[in-house]
C-alpha cells in the first residue's frame, strides 16, 4: 500500500510495508482522533482520549516482539500451550511528550523497565538536542519500545535511536511507537534504519513550513500537559 502526500517540493511516497504498522482505521479510532484533533478539546478529554489510542498502539507494538512457547496447567488439569515474551521489555519514552505513553505501557505490562531519553526540538531550527539519557545497563538484552507520540521531521526519532544503538541495542529489537507520523519522518527514519519497525495510528498529509504535521494535532506535549494555556 502506498500513501501519497503532496509536498511543496513535489509528491512524497511512503510505502506502508511490514516495517510500518498502521492501526486499522476503524470508525472508533477516527472518532477518538476527532476528539483530540479538535482545537477546543479540554485537557481532561485530550488526556483520556489520547490514552485510549496510545493503549491500542502499545498492544500492537507488544504483538511485534518475539515470543517463545510455554506450557501452563489449567485449573481443570489440562495443558495450555501458550506464549510468553522471549526477552524482557524496556520502554523508553522521549521526554517530555513520550511520558504520556509510559503510563499506558505500565498499565498493560507492570513489570516493564523504563529508560528515559530527554530530547527537545529547538524552537527555531526544529533540530533535536539531546540533553540526557538514563537507560538500564543491560538494555541490549531487551526488546525496546521507543515511545514518542509525534514523528514529524524524524530528527528526534533518529537522535533517540542513535542513543539506543550506542548502548548496544540492535535495530531490529526496537519498535518505535508514535501516535501521529508524517511521511517525511517515516522516510527519514527508514532511510537510515530500514529495519526499524514503526507503529502508528495515523499518517498525516505532510509537514507545514514550521515542521508541524497537518492536519495534525498541534504541539502534543503542550496539549497533553496543559502548558498551552495563555496567561
Ligand atoms: C516534539 C515531539 C517529538 C518531536 C517530534 O517534542 O514530542 O519529540 O517534537 O518532532 P521531529 O520528528 O521533527 O523531531 P518537543 O521537542 O516539542 O518537546 P515536548 O516533548 O516537550 O513537547
Ligand atoms: N511536535 C508536535 O507536538 N507536533 C507536531 O506536529 C510536530 C512536532
UniProtKB/TrEMBL annotation:
The Phosphoribosyltransferase domain, residue ranges: 24-227
Coiled-coil regions listed in the entry: none
Cofactors (names): Mg(2+)
Pathway: Pyrimidine metabolism; UMP biosynthesis via salvage pathway; UMP from uracil: step 1/1
Pfam families to which the protein is assigned, alphabetical: UPRTase (PF14681)
Domain of life: Bacteria
E.C. number: 2.4.2.9
EC category name: transferase
InterPro entries found in the cross-reference section: PRTase-like (IPR029057), PRTase_dom (IPR000836)
A single MF term (Gene Ontology): uracil phosphoribosyltransferase activity
Keywords: Allosteric enzyme, Glycosyltransferase, GTP-binding, Nucleotide-binding, Transferase
Annotated CDD domains: PRTases_typeI
Family (UniProt): Belongs to the UPRTase family.
Name by which UniProt lists this protein: uracil phosphoribosyltransferase
Amino acid at each position: 500500500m502506498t500513501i501519497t502526500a503532496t509536498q511543496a517540493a513535489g509528491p512524497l511516497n511512503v510505502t506502508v510495508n511490514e516495517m510500518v504498522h498502521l492501526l486499522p482505521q476503524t470508525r472508533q479510532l477516527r472518532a477518538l482522533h476527532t476528539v483530540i484533533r479538535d482545537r477546543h478539546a479540554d485537557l481532561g478529554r485530550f488526556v483520556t482520549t489520547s490514552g485510549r489510542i496510545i493503549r491500542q498502539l502499545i498492544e500492537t507494538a507488544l504483538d511485534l516482539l518475539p515470543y517463545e512457547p510455554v506450557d501452563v496447567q489449567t485449573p481443570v488439569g489440562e495443558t495450555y500451550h501458550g506464549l510468553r515474551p522471549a526477552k524482557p521489555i524496556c520502554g523508553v519514552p522521549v521526554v517530555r511528550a513520550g511520558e504520556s505513553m509510559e503510563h499506558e505501557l505500565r498499565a498493560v505490562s507492570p513489570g516493564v523497565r523504563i529508560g528515559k531519553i530527554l530530547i527537545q526540538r529547538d524552537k527555531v531550527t526544529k533540530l533535536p538536542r539531546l540533553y540526557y539519557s538514563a537507560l538500564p545497563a543491560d538494555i541490549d538484552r531487551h526488546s525496546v519500545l521507543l515511545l514518542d507520540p509525534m514523528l514529524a521531521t524524524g530528527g528526534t526519532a533518529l537522535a533517540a535511536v542513535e542513543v539506543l544503538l550506542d548502548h548496544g541495542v540492535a535495530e531490529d529489537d526496537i519498535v518505535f511507537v508514535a501516535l501521529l507520523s508524517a511521511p517525511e519522518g517515516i522516510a527519514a527514519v527508514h532511510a537510515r534504519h530500514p529495519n526499524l519497525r514503526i507503529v502508528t495510528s495515523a499518517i498525516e498529509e505532510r509537514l507545514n513550513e514550521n515542521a508541524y504535521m497537518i492536519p495534525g494535532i498541534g504541539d502534543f506535549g503542550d496539549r497533553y500537559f496543559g502548558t498551552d494555556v495563555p496567561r
